[in-house]
Structure formats: C-alpha cells, structure tokens
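> call design_seq(struct)
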C-alpha cells in the first residue's frame, strides 16, 4: 500500500483516473481517495532492509523504462 498526498483534489483525481487498474510489477493497482479517518497503517510492516531493497529494485525498474 502507498499513500500519496496532492496539492489539490483535482490533482489527486487525475492521478486516480490515470493509475486505477494499471499493473505494476504484476500487481493491479487500486486507487481511491482516503477519507482521512480510516487507519491504513494496520497490517504487516516491512523491515528497513526490506524497504531499502524494494526501493533499490524500484529505482532499477524505473531506469529500464523508456
């Protein structure tokens, strides 16, 4: 899960329209507005090493895109 903040709801809506249903690394993205109340932090947390590895792999993936 990722949470992204935008400067306006219009920007957020455009991102949702653009990204909803697309696939990223074999995973279908689900995009929605956050109501500001639901606790999205619950669930398993990755270790710092896992986060760093994931970010490195994402950076490598971005560099291979045209």
């Amino acid at each position: 899960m990722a949470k992204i903040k935008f400067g306006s709801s219009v920007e957020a809506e455009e991102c949702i329209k653009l990204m909803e249903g697309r696939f990223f690394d074999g995973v279908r993205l689900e995009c929605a507005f956050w109501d500001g109340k639901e606790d999205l932090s619950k669930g398993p947390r990755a270790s710092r090493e896992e986060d760093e590895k994931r970010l490195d792999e994402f950076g490598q993936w971005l560099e291979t895109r045209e």
